[in-house]
Sequence to fold (226 residues):
Amino acid sequence: MPMTGPFPTAMPDARLLLIDDHTLFRTGLRLLLADSPSVSAIAEAGTVMEAVQHHAGAAIDIILLDIQLPGLNGIEGVRVLRRHFPAARILIVSGTSGRDAIPADVLKDVAGFLPKSADATQIEQAIARCLQGGSYFFCAADDAIVSGQSATGAARYLPSQLTPRQLEVLGQLALGRSNKIIAHHLGLSENTVRVHVAAILDHLGVVSRVEAIIEAQRRGLIQAAR
Fold:
C-alpha cells in the first residue's frame, strides 16, 4: 500500500516522460495509460541522455524513470534531469530494485517509487499525488522481497560527487563519443568538454577515458548497453 494520505479525487492532465531502455515496457505502459483521463501526452526515451537531447525544454509534469539504464543510471540521472526539467516530478520505477536502493540524498529529489509490477490504478494514484504536490512511495509485503534481492546491487552502488554537467559528459563517454561529438551534443566548446573529462578522471582516480568508463561501471554510475 502507498505510504501517503487520502487519494485526491481531481487532478489535471499530466504530460509524462517515460525513460526506460525496454521498448516493450514503454509500449505497455503507454497502452495502460492511453485511456487515462489524467494523462494528456506521453513522451519516451531509452536513456537519460536521450531524454535530455530530445525533450529538454518540453513541458513535462511527471518523469517515470527506470533505475537500470544503459549509460548513466537512473539514480545518477536524477540530478541531470533536475537540471533540464526543473518543474517535473520524478517517479522512480524499477523491476529489480526496491526503495532501499535509492540513496537518501537522491530520495529528497524524487516524488516517489513504483515497482514495474504496479497496476494502472496504482500508477494513476502515484501520478495524481505528484500533480497535487505530494509523494507516492509504494510499500507492500512483496516489496520486502524485491528490496532483499537488490541488497547486493545497492551495496555496489557508490554515489558520486560529479556535477550534473559532468554526469552528462560521463554518459557521453560511455557511448564512446569523442570530445568533438560530445561538444556538439551538449552544446559546449571542445575545451569545456576537455575540462569536464579531466575532472571526471580526477574524481574517479583514473588516467584514461577507458579506465573512467570501467571505474564508473564498477561503481554502478553507468551501465553497458543491453
